[in-house]
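Exercise 7.
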Amino acid sequence: MKDLQDLKILVMGVGGLGCPASLALAQAGVGTLGLVDPDRVELSNLHRQILYNEENVGQLKVEAARERLTQLFPGLKTIIYPEVFSGSNAEKLFRSYDIIVDGLDRLEKKYVLNDWCVKFNKPFVHAGVVKFEGQVMPVIPSVTACLRCLLPKIPPPFALPTCREAGVLGSFSQAIGYLQAFETLKLARGSKELFLWKWDIQKREARAIRPARNTECEACSKGMIEKEMAVRCEV
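Solution. The predicted structure, written as tokens, is:
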């Protein structure tokens, strides 16, 4: 178990989830944050992506996020990667980090992250939010269930909408991001109380589920062949 100051966490996507997660992790005292995102700040982002303001519109998100986090936490080390995540750069990105935070915006990309975290034995915290529903699930490869244990087949690209396309309450995506940061800190502290959290704020329902590993899972149990992974990861 590392001290928080020695912990290195990689945040994949600095949007509606990655912004609050990064802020909460920095506030907790994490020493190093890596930020991965190729996009630039847009006006439509501002209601839910709390690290940015109107002055940042047009700026690379990772640059704007680093400026804001450094302003708030001068002792924080922030490393930025303004690039698209795929199978070709997964090893380079993951190599130096202890835990990966999934703030990606499309479900098919989340499967990419899942598969490569399993391959490199990197614990990660999945999260997703759209409309009135959100979920968070920490994953320890070979110990807990992974995404493919729950839904084995990767959805086709753009099969499900992003929160930008379908809509989401800014305060709700922030709440999911903060919960994601909380679960990340639990992983860092070696907690074994790991659950899939599911929220539906329209129905006023919240559930904690401990999903079982699938012994036939192609990712974390049987092991995916390299060629198959390479095809799936170029999205």
